[in-house]
Design a protein that fits this description.
2 domains, Creatine Amidinohydrolase, 4-stranded mixed beta sheet, 6-stranded mixed beta sheet, Creatine Amidinohydrolase, Chain A, domain 1, alpha+beta, 20 strands, 390 residues, 37% helix, homodimer
Chain lengths: 390, 390
């Protein structure tokens, strides 16, 4: 049994506690596997096919395959064996290079290592490309290969959507750092110390790390008045002016021990046009309306449709979802999409964003995004993003 | 016809020249489609399924679907219509929201818009997940859906592997910026002005943008002596010491008008152990050996196997590939893997890295990586990364 080293990941749990946590999470999956008659389960976190479930189940934050077998054993296959030996918790750790860095070889290795019988049922990630699936079926004729929606990987997604106590504690910490940083950003911008998109974005990178964060959850989006009309500006930030007259959008997240916040501030500097004032008012009202609708048992699409209707009434349209779950990824379950196929229901323990926004090619854009924890007693707004008037 | 706006992408071509360039690239694909009897070709660059071919074929750098039809028409379906109207070149541009942000709806829209007949042959990306492929087949029974290795998307990869004159000109520019920055980094580190991993990485972000770069091609990896044993340290950079006694690795790339450089410097500060000196000597010799083997018509796996044999002779092993193509992505064709299934042959116009490296959990790591352009008259080393002794 390899156990995570606390130094390397910056974690403060003790090793035994961490081991127990990862084993507890895997235990839930072993039970599910046995119910489903599944012998072997494969996760893949590699370039172009990422899956933070590997980190959630073992603590290992980098490229690896992970195999779970219904007899309650786990095997991590990391690209970087030195890193894995310093910060992972799994029953076996075998370097990916032992398998020529080929998934099929690693699957065969796991079958051999666990002594699985012929015809064993193996579930692979539902994002496996079709041509690769065909290759697996051809090469691994000794297995019954399952690749589906609604399977084990979605089950992990559902489990991850409800944060446990350790995760909620981390969310309180990362939200605190994020709030501190937003206050500092407001101060620096009011004092004229941060003038460009680039200065603003790099200030966040530096200050986040000073607070012990791993980094940012996605490339910080800093769009001054000339570029805030884009939902996600391209490039993410430039040498252009930030927080000058008009509307500027700042969308960022800090990552603490794996978990990312995700907030958006709008800076509105005088003089503003009537149309810009209207965007601000509509977004603030939509945000409050959405927050008022958050409750246990509520379908997320209903909230999203309400906000859509509100904007439609004002002859506006929001070109993106109302929000999304956050965790080890910036976008995870639950979805808060305004789509008929969205069947997510809010439950205590979910942590998600609400982020109404409107964008106009001439007026610029306005978005307000905060992170919400749904508790037994209702929604708790973890972060303190706001529309800041300058 | 929508034409790219030069301000927004920072491009310096004039609009007519840009239009001609993207049309020329699409023209090559239309020919290929006609040879293959393909009516419709779909590219997808969205969250979790990226494909810079969309940018290569239209100039549009953000999330979108792209459809090409063999009758030589293109249709871009961007997530952000405002951004697309400001910087893309396609015959039609229709917002993704018109299709409820659902690929199947967009495919139906393209079929309708182009007036394709029943049974038209449609090729979708080879990374399409198996369950999604099944959904397409069920929902789009009016089409003959192709999803394969060795198809249109790989053809684009092969075309992109040979850079055209405009791309080579951009590579000379981004390499120049990268070389300037490496000299500046060496100076700042020698003068004790950059002391931590974080200062070093954020210096690159800031200085790159001052030179007009979009950003960095991947998260800068700065590993001081305590962490350089990892191929890719995690987190990418921290507040820890950089370039202190022992071996430190700095791996970064600047992106200029879409194209990324990719270099790795090792900083070796006295006192060094004999084992550390040996790592340096071996890596420098492996790098020179690899460069000497680069020639038109040469199989890349032969070079990689030679380097492997050299390291094996010294009782060492490199846990990663010898190099990879670079371009709109940090990792693209050609592969320079030490794997029997690697059948890439070097051709003039290819731009790729050579990056031998060795890693030891006690001594730390050493890697040297430069970007090479293969010209008609042989390899040209574009960048000037080196092992810097302090």
């Amino acid at each position: 049994m390899f156990v995570m080293d606390l130094q390397k990941t910056g974690a403060k749990y003790d090793a035994a506690e961490a081991t127990a946590m990862y084993e507890y999470r895997r235990e839930k999956l072993y039970r599910w596997m046995n119910e489903e008659g599944l012998s072997l389960l494969m996760f893949q976190h590699t370039e172009g096919q990422t899956d933070p479930a590997v980190r959630w189940l073992t603590g290992y934050p980098a490229d690896a395959l992970l195999f779970l077998v219904s007899e309650k054993k786990s095997m991590l296959v990391p690209w970087d064996i030195h890193l894995a030996l310093s910060c992972s918790c799994a029953d076996e750790v075998t370097p990916y290079t032992d398998f020529e860095r080929q998934p099929i070889n690693a699957i065969r290795g796991a079958i051999r290592s666990f002594g699985l019988p012929l015809g064993a049922k193996l579930e692979i990630p539902p994002v496996t490309p079709y041509p690769q699936f065909l290759q697996y079926v051809e090469s691994l004729s000794e297995c019954d290969i399952v690749c589906r929606t609604g399977g084990a990987h979605e089950e992990v997604g559902r489990l991850r959507a409800i944060k446990d106590d350790a995760e909620i504690a981390l969310y309180r910490q990362v939200s605190g750092f994020t709030n501190e940083l937003m206050d500092l950003l407001e101060k620096q911008i009011r004092e004229g110390k941060l003038k460009t998109e680039s200065e603003t974005a790099l200030f966040i990178e530096a200050e986040g790390r000073k607070r012990g964060c791993e980094g940012t959850g996605f490339e910080t989006l800093a769009a001054g008045p000339a570029r805030s009309f884009g939902i996600h500006p391209f490039p993410a930030y430039t040498l252009g002016e930030f927080a000058g007259p008009g509307l500027s959008i700042l969308d960022f997240g800090l990552v603490y021990k794996g978990y990312t916040s995700d907030v958006t501030l709008t800076f509105a500097r005088e003089p503003l046009t009537k149309a810009q004032e209207k965007l601000i008012t509509l977004v603030e009202r939509a945000y409050r309306m959405a927050l008022d609708l958050v409750r246990t048992g509520g379908p997320t699409k209903d909230i999203a449709f309400e906000v859509d209707a509100f904007f439609r009434h004002a002859k506006k349209a929001m070109p993106h979802a109302l929000g999304h779950g956050i965790g080890l990824e910036a976008h995870e379950f639950p979805a808060l999409r305004n789509r008929s196929d969205n069947d997510w229901i809010l439950q205590p323990g979910m942590v998600f964003t609400l982020e109404p926004g409107l964008y106009d090619p001439r007026q610029g854009g306005c978005r307000l995004e905060n992170d919400i924890l749904l508790t037994e007693s209702g929604p708790e707004t973890l972060t303190n993003a706001r529309i800041i008037r300058l």
